[in-house]
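FIELD: query
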Amino acid sequence: DVNNGTHTEGDYQTFGDDMGQIRDQLLSLGNSRDANGEFMFAGTATKTQPFVFNAATGFQYQGDQQSRSVIVAAGRELKFGDSGFDLFVDIFTGNQGITASANNANTGSGVLGAVSEAVAGGYNGDQFRIDFTAPGVYDLINVTTTTTISAGNVFTPGDSINVGGITATLDGVPDAGDQFDFDPSTRQNLLTSIDNLANALEGATVTDVAKLTNQINRGLENVDAALEKTNGIRSRVGNRLNAVDTVRAANESFGIAYETTLSQIRDLDFTEAASRLTSEVNSLEIAHAAFARV
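FIELD: result
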């Protein structure tokens, strides 16, 4: 367990290297090509490498947000492939629209645990802060409106703190001046989320386990958000496969009908058919004549 606080700095470096390898594998996957040499996750910009990295801007997506499509039957068109934007980029940080963070300058052992809306739709999108004015005492602040919601609140490790429609579990012993912020979620690509975890582990020290734990907790929230998005895309892909199966079954049915008709034509005795047709026409003419006399 990386997050149990019993490892050496060498262990953290190893964990960070492992996470970096996962990041590199995802980058390679995002830049995969199909059998035609086209980028699979660039949307319709199949000649453009979708994901690049540079030190100034980090991981960037260069493809478009469109999905390619293919005609599978007369009047029936299906999308195939999802863009890298959908799969890797269109992911929001945090949980339920809330991104929590511990200030990097914190000196205490305070650790933010689970963070969510107190009630569905209860968070209004403002930035809120837990500000410790002394050990065991904190103020609740609306940073957006620069107002103090409540002051001098008594803290016990493990408390659930509610502010602005948000509920958060806070453990450990924060020092005076320590702060914990809650901001609206923002879009962050999966590669950046994994990279942040790798950097946090590689830079971790045994003397600041609380900082690492906060970074890991928030990083795992971001990974969970990515997994949720991936599951949604997998469901869409499953629906497309079902549609393809339906079209295939219909085409096979048409194929059987065509083969049956073709077989009947090939096996037809044209002399007998012509005789039957003549007989049917004669019968029809007699019926018409009889009807005319009536």
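FIELD: remark
The helical segments are 9-30, 84-89, 190-202, 209-267, 270-293.
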